[in-house]
Amino acid sequence: MTLIACSHGTRFQEGRDAIHDLIAHVRQLLPGVEIAEAFVDVQEPSIDHVVAGTDGPAVIVPLLLSAGFHTGVDIARAARIRDDVTATAPLGPHPLLAETLVARLHEAGLRDGDHIVLAAAGSSRPAAAEHVERMRELLAILLPHPVTVGYAAGADPQIPAAVAAARASGARRVVAASYVLAPGYFANEVAGAGADVATAPLGADPRVAQVIAERYLSAIPALTAA
Predict the structure, then answer these.
(1) Distances (CA, A) of 195 to 6, 21, 181
(2) How far apart are CA 113 and CA 127, in angstroms?
(3) E strand or H helix at 159, and its extent?
(4) Which domains does the chain have, with CATH numbers?
(5) Beta strands 85-87 and 173-179: pairing type?
(6) Which of 42, 68, 87, 137 gives 60 a disulfide partner, CB atoms 3.0 to 4.6 angstroms apart?
(7) Mean pLDDT of 208-220
(8) Contact of 195 with 174, CB cutoff 8 Å
(9) Is 177 in contact with 56 (CB distance < 8 Å)?
(10) pTM value?
(11) What is the pLDDT of residue 224?
């Protein structure tokens, strides 16, 4: 049973390295499982090409944090190419991602009185906003700080507006929690959105790798029973 790890793709070498390292963590968690990399944009091989060339059953795990166009169109289309291929939900929302966000916030020097803006890439699809809101709730459970949401694109409020609203509410500092997987375009958008501090992306964290492994393992029973 092949795990097809499907990420967005990026022109930034730091982002490519982070995804490569993340998949290396997954290989350690799933010894003996064949793992193939695929992309929906920018990089090759495409998800359609990988699915068509994979021998035997396969599970596509989107290395994406929320539902959106790529999960609903590109990955869903690829999963229909063959009857022995299925696609899982995106990585978020998940408690382990919330734990990773907390770790990044503390690495960035989170202080008492800070206001956190959960800064997501964004999508015009309602399911994406629902997923981000659920992540906001999971993060807020773990921290005694106010947590609101901002988007880099595709939805409102945009991150600069969310930062401004947090300051208007009396926040001492505003910290943008970068809810993106790897360095690249959206991580740069978060960093430049006007917060006092912006965290690093989730990156090649073992907790994120564990979510990927969980998504893969949870899909196997239904696929083998089909």
Answers:
(1) 31, 28, 19
(2) 31
(3) helix 159-168
(4) 2-91+205-225 (3.40.50.1400), 95-198 (3.40.50.1400)
(5) unpaired
(6) 87
(7) 97
(8) yes
(9) no
(10) 0.95
(11) 79
